[in-house]
Amino acid sequence: MTEQPAIDLTTAAKNAIWRDGDPLMEAIAAALWENCHTEGPSSVNDDPRNIAAVAATVARWHGAHAAQELAVAEASIAANEIELEGSDVMLQEMSVGDPIEIDQQTGPLIPGIWVITKFECERRCRARVRRLSAEEIQAARQREATGRMYE
């Protein structure tokens, strides 16, 4: 499978075009026509179809990226596939539950905070990892902040 180049949201929105028969665009345009005055003094200065095309593109872009992120919520990594805190920290020195912060795409891991869920071999050369949700990251930061207050 070949990987498609990433298109940022701004580019996608700028290139949005109206498609007759597109159910999402039709629904957005109908709502705009029904609820917004497009003539005379109005906050809407464009054809509702153009606005609907951009809105539908943005919605689909976010949906596709959310699905992509969910699809890559778990992975199996080898010790040589990632670099942790420089080259001095090794996967073999970590434990189940330890977090791994990834700043940029590294092998199968997209940026985010991952946690080791289990090791797949006795020598700890491969590990299963799971990407933490925003809620889990926030809860961990809250626990850490609360812990520091009582030190």
- pLDDT averaged residue by residue: 75
Cα shape: elongated
Helical fraction: 25-40%
**SS class:** alpha+beta
As residue ranges, the low-confidence spans are 1-5
What is the topology, as strand order, of the major beta sheet? 1-4-3-2
Beta-strand share of residues: 15-25%
Count of helices?
4
**N→C terminal distance:** 52 Å
CA gyration radius, whole angstroms: 23 Å
What is the domain total for the residues?
Answer: 2
Question: Would you mind describing this structure in some detail?
Answer:
It is a single chain. By secondary structure, this protein is of the alpha+beta class. The chain folds into 2 domains: 9-71, no CATH class; 74-149, no CATH class. Helix content is 39%, strand content 15%. It is built from 4 helices and 4 strands, in the order αααββββα. It has helices at residues 9-14, 23-35, 48-71, 134-149; strands at residues 74-78, 99-102, 112-119, 126-131. Helix 2 crosses helix 3. The protein is elongated.
Give a brief outline of the structure:
The chain has 151 residues and is an alpha+beta fold. It contains four helices and four strands, in the order αααββββα.
